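Subject: Sanity check before I submit

Could someone independently write out the structure tokens for this chain? I want to compare against mine line by line before I put it in a report. The sequence has 432 residues.
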Amino acid sequence: MGSRKIQNRPHIEKCVLSFSHDKFPSRAEADEVSINKAKREIAAGKKGISHLILRAENEEIDRLKFLFPICGIPIMCYALANALNSSLKEIAVIGSPEVRTILDAYLENIGNQGKKVVFIDEDNDNPSLVRAMTLGRDALQPNSDELTLFQPGDLPFMYDVEKVVQDNDIANNNLILWLNSRNTMFPEIETNSDSEFVVRNYHYRAIDEEADLLFDIKEPNIYPINFSSVEPDIIDLLHQTRKDGNIFQALLLKTLKHPRRLMRMLPVFAQEAMSFRSSAARHRPDDNYQFGMHKDMFDRGASILLNTQVTSKFHDDPAFVADVDALEDWEDYEEIILYAEANHGEDGLSAVHPYGQALGQFKEKVMPQLKTQIPLYRDFPSYMNSLYQSLQMDRQPFDESGQYITRNSEQEKTKAAFHWYSEKTKSLLQYT
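---
Independent answer below. Compare away.
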């Protein structure tokens, strides 16, 4: 890493919002990946079981997760509402023709909130994450001294965007890793397991020396990044290897391309190899994990690896980890909103989402028309029941009348989620 002092613009004003995702060559291959992953998790006794929502080539109904409706509203609309109601000024949306149809309908009926919004067609030949980043970067043309927020659009309740785009570390770092920390998101987990209402598998560990605490960590879902200073392929590597916790593989692949950086990193990794496991054992003996580092050493190693200043932080917002990668994730959001409606009536969404009124307006005004334009919406309950059956799941989500069937066994987690999001919504609305 060079010695040049970094002085970026203090706030993020541009965002790449990606509703693009890669495709498998066939439906059979996609389903095999989804089924086998869930089987591995079940066999390993994991708490977070996930049947992934995966696209395949040449399908009449595109199984693009961002299009899936949560309580009748497309996932991508939640992400749009979050971005459009933030202090961001320019947003590049990447996606399929169906994504554009929904985007145009949203902007026409709900409005752009004064933002400049540009749509870019996904690259059908290469709909990868790094390609979406490149397309977004080219459309937004960020300056060399500004960070851009790159965000996959499957975080429906990540509506507290301001702490990311106005973070104090933006000015002095070219990449900020908002690591998902189980301990900070769910501080009561040791005494109340139901308080962990977003269940994920945490493969990594980090020690914060200053706080003298051991953290269970997952990779980020959002990336404030200076495109002029950070090679996008590291983000792609992190995302490619994230599903089974193979972050070390990503780091190894990256360092092999840069032998000089590898030589500079070896002392960092050697020190961690000798000290981290014993340090972690002081906090939690016999813990199993795939990769661990002290936070300050991780930041130092990442900065050497990318040849620029990188920092990480442990946030306390479950919405940042609650992406919709799997059918189980989709169910979690259905449960929260239905619970909110049961307690607050038809406007229950507004109790857990600060832009619930606009989203409800979209559902009422626009969705009837979209059902005639987008095949996924024509008979979504039947489609989902068939999908669950094809992935060998032990339930169907909708009854014969098309009503969602609530998971009674998860009621305590749903209540905990409702309480957290309702309190968060109240606090945000107080300052708007």
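---
OP: Matches mine. For the report I'm noting this point. The first strand starts at residue 14 and ends at 18.
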